[in-house]
Amino acid sequence: MATELKHLTKRSENYSQWYNELVVKADLAEQADVRGCMVIKPYGYAIWEKIQQTLDAKFKETGVQNVYFPMLIPKSFLSREAEHVEGFAKECAVVTHYRLKSGDENQGLIVDPAAKLEEELIIRPTSETTIWNTYKKWIQSWRDLPILCNQWCNVMRWEMRTRLFLRTSEFLWQEGHTAHATREEAEARAKQMVRVYADFVEQFMAVPLVVGVKSATERFAGALDTYTIEAMMQDGKALQSGTSHFLGQNFGKAFNVQFVDKENKLEYAWATSWGVSTRLMGALIMTHSDDNGLVLPPKLAPIQVVIVPIYKGEEERKAFSEKFAPLIETLRAKGISVKYDDADNKRPGFKFADYELKGVPVRLVMGGRDLQNNTIEVMRRDTLEKETLAFDGIAEHVEKLLGEIQENIFTKAKRFLDDHIYECNDYDEFKQRIADGGFFLCPWDGTAETEAKIKEDTQATIRCVPFDYSQDNLGNDMVSGKPAKFRVVVARSY
Description:
The chain is an alpha+beta fold. 35% of the residues lie in helices and 27% in strands. The protein has 3 domains: 27-288, 2-Layer Sandwich (BirA Bifunctional Protein, domain 2), CATH 3.30.930; 305-407, Anticodon-binding domain (Rossmann fold), CATH 3.40.50; 421-491, Translation Initiation Factor IF3 (2-Layer Sandwich).
């Protein structure tokens, strides 16, 4: 047992500590020198690259094109949309000067007071304002629409309580920004993109979801509607994993983005924005991983198969290399990523524990006796089951096994989600049970007052009005006793 694995806190003892340790010990990320920021290490970034590449292709299938906008935004831009600036004002990092100079002998470098900016610049918390100020130049006629743009970038939101991947001051994400000629087209795009997210998260991350629309209190600042994908972590808490916003004409009006429509009348453009971030990494870790380390879905694992030969002497090492070369070539031709680890600087036991910790889906091991018998040991990370099989035909077996693992970890997570969704109509019962986690389907009268009371009493929030659960026979709100307008998902969250 590797030292790193031996000292991994168990989920049942302290779930939060288990997560924090696992992110570091599995070589995904570490704290940066700047408070609240993180260094994403090569193994962690390799997972993010797979997420990025897959989503990028899905976006482009819907007609979206990539762009890049500056990370510095004039402060005046944020002031133009009142709800938007109110939502982000307390999180903004502000650039006030553009130069340093040498101070006195004991001061070192200081900010040059003569280099004060005429207008402060905001490090982007999100880019609606600068993008819509630009769209004003791009849009004159209905023929210029729709505009379907996305950018992959970093953003800064000054967080007080941070946790690697889940909530950091600086994080990586994509933000899509679209402009449309009609309300119907914009609403359809916002709904389309939340479904793109949902399909990706379930099919590639193997994370089951509840999809729905946010309450007015919880929606994005400046949006008319926010659509969300909500995942359940193993401690029963919700993690908002992606959002898509129908912005109406708010930004079109704020930045005077008008166009001549088909009837030759001036109209304001309709808008959407949508994004997912490196928070998806947190969802991936907390949904599937166990007390032995990461459990990664094969579709996103940087290394899908690791091969570890156990040899004695250089001659046997060479024999293994020749034995595995055709297999490696065959697997890679199938699009399967393979690592062949015959390094002699670590013992096999350490390698096994390390690859378990890092969640490699399939491990193939062959020793001297296996070489003689033409057999190989196969271990699957999701169940830790081992079997010894004939070497011939192993490539086809591995390909099939990766598909089984992908399906199995989704099925396991879906069963956990389904088992922890409860219909609840009684507020006293809700208050007693919410601390144990889970998604509670509760009747809600639609008022902000009731929503605020639930949050004040229990620290739980309305996650969404779910699309895939019945809104019939709602009864009365469990808090106010008034007729319910919706059945909503209520949960504690990250």
